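ping. complex inputs:
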Amino acid sequence: MKREEPLFDVGQLAHLEIYSPKIEESVAFFKEILGMTEVERKGKSVYMRAYEDHYHNTLVITDHHEAGLAHIGLRATSPNALERRVKELEEAGYGIGWIEGDVGHGPAYQFNSPDGHVMEVFWEVEYYEAPEEEKTHLLNRPQRRPNTGVPVRRLDHVNLLASNVRKNVEFLDDYLGFNVRERILNDENDDIAAWTSVTNLAHDIAIMGDALGEKGRLHHICYWYGYPQHLTDVADLLIERGFQIEAGPLKHGVSQASCLYVFEPGGNRVELFGDAGYLIFDPDWRTVEWKGEDVQTAIIWQGEELPADFFVYGTPVREKVEIAEQAPIQEETEEVRVQSVKEAKQEAETKA
Amino acid sequence: MKREEPLFDVGQLAHLEIYSPKIEESVAFFKEILGMTEVERKGKSVYMRAYEDHYHNTLVITDHHEAGLAHIGLRATSPNALERRVKELEEAGYGIGWIEGDVGHGPAYQFNSPDGHVMEVFWEVEYYEAPEEEKTHLLNRPQRRPNTGVPVRRLDHVNLLASNVRKNVEFLDDYLGFNVRERILNDENDDIAAWTSVTNLAHDIAIMGDALGEKGRLHHICYWYGYPQHLTDVADLLIERGFQIEAGPLKHGVSQASCLYVFEPGGNRVELFGDAGYLIFDPDWRTVEWKGEDVQTAIIWQGEELPADFFVYGTPVREKVEIAEQAPIQEETEEVRVQSVKEAKQEAETKA
Amino acid sequence: MKREEPLFDVGQLAHLEIYSPKIEESVAFFKEILGMTEVERKGKSVYMRAYEDHYHNTLVITDHHEAGLAHIGLRATSPNALERRVKELEEAGYGIGWIEGDVGHGPAYQFNSPDGHVMEVFWEVEYYEAPEEEKTHLLNRPQRRPNTGVPVRRLDHVNLLASNVRKNVEFLDDYLGFNVRERILNDENDDIAAWTSVTNLAHDIAIMGDALGEKGRLHHICYWYGYPQHLTDVADLLIERGFQIEAGPLKHGVSQASCLYVFEPGGNRVELFGDAGYLIFDPDWRTVEWKGEDVQTAIIWQGEELPADFFVYGTPVREKVEIAEQAPIQEETEEVRVQSVKEAKQEAETKA
Amino acid sequence: MKREEPLFDVGQLAHLEIYSPKIEESVAFFKEILGMTEVERKGKSVYMRAYEDHYHNTLVITDHHEAGLAHIGLRATSPNALERRVKELEEAGYGIGWIEGDVGHGPAYQFNSPDGHVMEVFWEVEYYEAPEEEKTHLLNRPQRRPNTGVPVRRLDHVNLLASNVRKNVEFLDDYLGFNVRERILNDENDDIAAWTSVTNLAHDIAIMGDALGEKGRLHHICYWYGYPQHLTDVADLLIERGFQIEAGPLKHGVSQASCLYVFEPGGNRVELFGDAGYLIFDPDWRTVEWKGEDVQTAIIWQGEELPADFFVYGTPVREKVEIAEQAPIQEETEEVRVQSVKEAKQEAETKA
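pong. complex structure:
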C-alpha cells in the first residue's frame, strides 16, 4: 500500500513463542550453546532472554507435540498507536481478541496473518532487572555477558513460510506498517520471498513461499551476535557437540548478513547473525528487487550454496497432506524431517 | 519534552558539510585512506560519498579559511513531515529560510540550533547512480567496494560542541524528534554530554559541552565500517602515512562502539566506527544516565583513556576570545591546535 | 624415514615461480587485488612481494604459453646445511645442477622431485630495502602496508599435484627434512594427500594426488592474511570485479585454516589464508591421519563443500594424454579448464 | 654467540609452573574465564591445559606463600639433543640436576638461568588423551572447544624480569639456541628488553630489565587466542567480573601482537594474545633493534600507552630489600602490589 506518510505505529519485533516437542533439550541448547538465560517458567512455557535484550524475555519455548511458531509479539510505539492498530485489524476481520498479558508484557491484542500465523501487539512491557550478581557497570547493557557458550546478544528477526507471500507481505505493510526492504521475484513478478521491517534493520519479519503449500509454518528465528568471529566460535561448539549446522557461516546477498543456520533440538531452524549487515535509514526506501540470474546473488554473496532442504523444511514438519493424514507426525522430529524433505523434493521434481 | 506519541518527522542524518583550510589534502585523505569517492565539484565544494551511502553524497568539503562544520542535512520522513517541521521551526524563531537545493537534494529549509549550528531539513533526494564499471551485482549496495585504502561504508553520526548541552538537546528533541539515548550528567544533574537519535542507532547527533564556552563548534564527524578489524587496518595506514590518531582503537561504554579518532588534514576530528555497537528498538527507551564514578565507564569500556585534548579541541579552532581577536586563526591548524589546547587546559586548571 | 634426530637443514619455503599465459593480467591481479608490489622485471619474469615478506621477492611470474609451476625456492639454514643437502640430492640422482642465482638470491642448487617438480635450495638472499616513502617505523615490517586492494602479508605455502603422493612426500622427508604433519589416507592406507613442513606451520608444501595421473602439476600457491575478516573483504573485491572464487571463505579441518580459493587470470589457483590455523611446536609430532568418514572433516570443518573441480583442476591444464596430443593446449585457459574438468570428471565417473 | 650453524636442540617452551598464594582462586580464573581444563592435582599443584595444547598440561599452579615463577619447562628436539644440552649446561656450572619427571613428562634436567630462574629440559612427554565426551572429530585438536569463558587455545610464551638482560639473553642463546628476534636498546646499546625464540614465533621467552634490580622474577605468562575478537570478548568477562585489566586490548610494535594484560587472582600478570603477530622463517634473522624515539613504537603500535606499573611490577612482589626484611610480603598481594609499585616509582624518580 502506498501511504501518504509512513506508518510508525509498530516499533519492533519484541518476542517470539516457539513450540518444542523436546522442551528441556531445546532450553538446554539456548542456554548452553547460545548463552541465553532462563528467566521464568510458567505452565508449559519457559521464558528466555539474550543478555542484551532489554525486556524481561524475548523467547518463549512452549512444550508441544510438534515444533513450530506459537506467536509473534510486536510492540506498538505508543498506547495510541496500539489503539489504532487494534481498530484497523478488528475492522478488517483479522482479530482474535485481547489477552490480559503474559510474563513480561501487559494486555495484548492477538490477530492472525492471512496465513494464520498468530501475532499480537501490545504496549506495556516489563524491563529486565538483573539480579545483583548479574548486573554490569556498562549501563546500556541490561545484564552482564554470560560465561557460557558463545552468547547471542539480542533477538533479531523471524522468517515465516507462507502459502502466498505477496498476500502476507501486503498485510504486514498495510495493517502494521512493515516496509518491504528486499524481495525475490519470479518471472511473473510474484514474490518468492520478501524481507520487511519497521526498524532500520533489513528485516524484522521475512516471508518465504512454503514449498509444500502449507499455511502458518515457521522457517526460522534469528538471534544476533554482531561479530562474524562468533559464528566461527559457535560453529565449533555446535559441530563438536553433534548439533546439525544446516549451512554457514556464509554471507547472504539479501541483508548482507553473515550467518549460520542450525536446528535446535526441538526441530526449529535457528539462524545466528554475525554482523549488522547493512542498515536502512532512507524513509522512502526503494525495495531492492532480485530477479532471474540475480537471485543466486540474493541468496549467497559469499560462501556455500544452501542445501535443497533450506527451501522446503519448516516447522511444524509437514508431509503432503494425504500422507500426514495416514501417518501423524512422530516424536522423532529428525527422522521425519529427513523423510519429509526427501518426499517434498521428489514431489517438487515430479512437478518440475 | 514528553510527547503523547513519539515524533517521526525526521528520518535520518543525511549529509554533513565541513570546512577545510586545506581542501585538496582533506579530499585526498577521505579518498586515499577512507576509500571515499569524489562525486562532484561545484563552487568551493567537493561532494563525496562512501560506497554504501545511497544518496548522491553524504560529505561536502568546502574550502574555507578555517576548519569547522558548515551545516547538517536532515531528511524528513515525508513531504508532510517536512512541512510540519518547517512550520514549527519558523514559528519558534529558529528559521533561516529555504534554499533551492544543492547537489544531491532538493529544496531545504535551513535553521539554527540554539547554539547556532546550521541545520537543514529536506525531502527530495537524488540517489547515486554508479557508472557502469562501478556497479555491483549486490543490488542493495549502490556502488562496488573500492579498491583503495580501507573504505568506510556509510555516514554514521555527527558530534557537536555546544555552550549549553541541555538547551541544544532539548531543541533536537522538541523540534525534530531526536530521542535522548544516553547522557552524562554532572553532580548537579546537568548534561555534560548527550547522545540523540531518530533512528535505531545510539546516536545520529551527539552534543558535548564546549570546554572553551564557544558556540557552534564541531567535535567530530563519524563514518562506519561495521567490522572491528577495519580499525586495525586503517590504523596501519594512518600511522605509516603520518596521520595523527588521537585515540583508539578503543571501545566506548556509551553506544558500545569500537572506534578510532583521527584528524583529517584540514583539522577536523574524524571518528571511525568499527562495529554496530548496540541498537535501540524500544519505542519508549529510558535514557541511560551516567554519573559520578560511572562516567569513566561511559567514556572507555575497553582500551585507553582519552587524551585531555579530546575534551577541549574542536573546530573551528578557538583560543580564548580575547586572544582570538588579537591573533586571527593562522593557516597552520596543527600548531594552533596544540597551542590552543595547551592554553585551554591551563585555563581549565586555573579555574579548577 | 625415521631419523635418529630431526633434520634441520632446510629452513623455509622462500619463493615460488609460476607461469602465466597472461602475464600482465596476472601481475595486475596480484598488485590491485592482493596489494603486492612489483619489485623488478627481468627477461620474461616479473618479481613480486607481499609487504611483510622480508626477502626481495617471493613470487616470480614468468611469461609462458601455459600456466603452471616453474620452480620452488627453499632456503637452507646455513651454508653447511646447503652443502649437505646438495651432496645427498646429487648422490641420489635428483640433481639438475647449480645456477648462479636469480634476482633476490645467490647460487642455488636445482633438483627434481620424483614427479619432476623443479625445486632449488640456496643460502644467500637479498633483503628487501624499501624506498624511503615506503618505509615504516614498525621496524619488524620491511615495507609499509599498501593502500591498494586487500594486501596479503606474506607467502604461506605451495600445494602440488603428484602422480604418486607417497613417493613425493617421502622424498621431501628423506632428502629435505619436511615433516608430515597431516595426511589423508585411502582404505589401503595409501596417501591421497599430505601436508608437510620444516617450520611450525601445518604445511609449507602439501601434495595431493593428481586425478589425471599427470606429473609435476601445481594445485595452488597460498599467501597469508592472518585475519579472517580479510577473506570477506577480498571476496567483495574479487566478486565485484568478476574474478572466479572457486570456494570459500571456509574453514578446513586440515591445518584449521580459514581460507578462500580463486583463479588468477593466468589460470593458476591461488589460496588466501585468513588466520594462523594451528601451529606445531612438538618436535616429535605424530602425523594426524584422516581416513574413512573423517575425510570430510579433514576437507571442510566449517562452510561449504569443495566443488568437484577442486580435486581435478591443476596447472598446466591437462586433458588426457591422447586428447592432448591431438589438440594442443589453447591459449584460452579458462575454456580449456572448463572442458578439461568436464572430461576428467567423465573419465573418473567411467572408471568408478 | 655467533655459531657456524644454528642450534636446534631445544624445540619449544613446553610448560610453566607458577606459584599462587590463592590457589583455588587462581585455578578458578583459568578455568572459568580462560576456559582451561584442570587435568590433575598432586601435592600442592594443580595441572592445567588449554584445549589445543597437545601435551598433558602446560600450566602448573602451585600453592605458595607468594606469587611468582616456579620453573620453565623446555622440550628438547631429540634424546641426543637433550644429552648435548645437559652436558653443556653441566660443564658450565648452571646445572641443578635431574628429576625423575613430573605429571605429564619424563626425566628432566633442571638448571638455573644466570639470574636464577629455574628451567628444565626433557624429552619424554605424555600426550593428552581426552575423555570420550571431550573428544572431537577435528583430529588435529586434542580436545573439543570448551563451553566456558572465552577459551584460550595454547600456551604461547613467558616473559621474565632479570637483573641483567644481556647476560640472561646470551645464556639463552649460547646454551639453548634461542635466537634474539627483537631487542630494545638504551643509549649505551645495552639491552632494556629482548625477545627470543627457538620457534617461528617472535618469542618463546622474553626478558625485560627488572626495575627493582631483583633476580628471578616473572613479568608475565601468555596464552594464545589467535583471533583479535576474543580479546574484546574476554575483556567483557574480566571487566564485568571485577578482574583488573592492566592494559589492552592494544597492539605492540614488538611481535605485532594484539594483546591484553590482566592479573590472575594470585597476583601473576597474564597476557592474552589475540592474533599470530608475525612469524619468522628466516634462518638468519637479523635482530630487530629499537632505540631512541623508536622505542615507543616498539611498545605500542596501536592503542593505549602502558601504565607505569607495567615496567615495575613483577612476581614475587618485591619491595626494596630493606623494607622487605622488616615487613615480609603479606597475603594481600594486591595491596602490596600497589604499595610496592608506588615506592618503586618513587625510587626510580629519586634516582633519575
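Residues 95 and 111 of chain B are 4 Å apart (CA to CA).
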